[in-house]
Amino acid sequence: xxxxxxxxxxxxxxISLEKLLLRLFPSLSFLCIAHEGKADLLRSIPRKLRAWQExxxxxxxxxxxxxxxxxxxxxxxxxxxxxxxxxxxxVRIVCQELEAWYLGDPEALASAFGDESLRRLGQxxxxxxPDAITKPSAQLSRLVPAFQKSSGARSMADHIERHRNNSxxxxxxxAGIERIVREVELVxxx
Length: 190
Description:
The protein has 190 residues and is an alpha/beta fold. 50% of the residues lie in helices and 12% in strands. The protein folds into two domains: 4-97 and 166-189; 98-157, no CATH class. It has eight helices and four strands. It is globular, with a radius of gyration of 17 Å.
């Protein structure tokens, strides 16, 4: 069976995705590899992709854009993957930070942090497009003062849903994972 290897910018992404993917895609075999920030991930991509020897492995790279142009970031990552001989790598950009994905699902936010007022968050104009929020982590800390990156990622992964999330970058990432799952299942049937 093929395995999906996710190269991630930071530990909180790995914490969130390990629980979330297991819950939403129970048949998916995957491995999350967290890096120590953007620079570490960018240095690591060519080395890891070239050296990986597991037959049938598929790859995904996930990084925050932190205010940069998403297309430019995606082109840069795509170039690194192609140069390493893995041009088919799924490259996805989190706009602007992982916390935008959390703000995109007010129901999950309310359930994860036990605050019913958060359910109405999506009705406020500034939260309708979570990917457009400049500093989602700051907004989330203001709304949920007890929020911590790691524990928050763990809590949100238990509640976030792919079909009700208003974050376009979250939905795009999930669509990419769904496509990989379908492709892996097709190969397994042959």
